[in-house]
Design goal:
The protein is an all-alpha fold. The chain has helices at residues 2-24, 32-47, 50-74, 81-108, 126-167, 174-184, 187-218, 230-249. The protein contains eight helices and no strands.
């Protein structure tokens, strides 16, 4: 019985993903009210947290860059240090930390009354679809934009820090630097990076909403101190990261 309930919960979450994607490409979704809601979510979910996340990621990245550089120098592998920094920090740790940061902020600010809910045990009716268009799609767009923006800005700062730590404040290392970074960011890797970051944003937006809808359907009460679906969200984020690593390196 528990297995069937779990499978039903995952199926409903995937169904919600399909609804969100379908509404996301529908022109009727983007009327003035929805655009205004999207702008508000983007402002609260990106611009308000961008300085703090950038500062935190810069400090942590600087520490990790120094550790990698000193370790590589001690083993005579300094020529691989820059590529390792880019692959580990920019491609893997920064997008995952951005998704976790956005999810953590959403969990701290969570209020169940502000999220959409449907009638228990029923499929989405016309009013429910309108409610989802009003609440879900702007959240999905804003979350995806937030994760991608945080990852992009922090990644650029990490690339700058890596250059300064490896070559110093001089333009003479640009040729070797651009060659190394270009070798890492080939078209396939760049596309995979963008797709993984987008999937992180979709997961951060949809999984908590799916948990709210499931709770409303089962007439259960959600705790206001923890983001709904937090365990499942963490599992999906790790699954996306592991899948990306498997496709890239196996």
């Amino acid at each position: 019985m528990t297995v069937l309930r779990t499978l039903d919960s995952w199926w409903r979450m995937l169904h919600l993903v399909g609804i969100a994607l379908a509404m996301g490409v529908s022109p009727s979704t983007y009327h003035r009210a929805n655009r205004s809601a999207t702008y508000r979510y983007i402002y609260s979910g990106t611009w308000q947290i961008l300085p703090w996340f950038t500062l935190l990621s810069t400090l942590l990245s600087l520490v990790l860059i120094r550790i990698v550089l000193v370790t590589a120098l001690s083993y005579g592998l300094s020529r691989y240090a820059l590529e390792m920094m880019v692959r580990v920090l920019v491609l893997e740790l920064i997008p995952l930390s951005a998704a976790l940061f956005v999810a953590l902020r959403a969990g701290l600010a969570f209020k169940g009354a502000q999220l959409p809910a449907t009638a228990a045990g029923q499929s989405a009716t016309a009013p429910d679809i309108a409610q989802l268009q009003q609440d879900l799609v702007p959240r999905v767009i804003a979350s995806a934009f937030s994760v991608m923006s945080l990852a992009t800005v922090s990644g650029m700062i990490v690339l700058l820090l890596a250059y300064v730590n490896v070559y110093g404040v001089t333009p003479w290392g640009l040729l070797d630097y651009t060659r190394t970074v270009g070798r890492v960011f080939d078209p396939a890797v760049t596309l995979g990076f963008a797709l993984k970051t987008l999937l992180f944003g979709l997961a951060v937006a949809i999984i908590p909403t799916a948990a709210i809808l499931e709770s409303a359907r089962r007439h259960t009460t959600l705790s206001s101190t923890l983001q709904p679906g937090a365990t499942r969200l963490l599992f999906v984020l790790v699954l996306i990261e592991v899948g990306a690593l498997a496709v890239k390196y196996i």
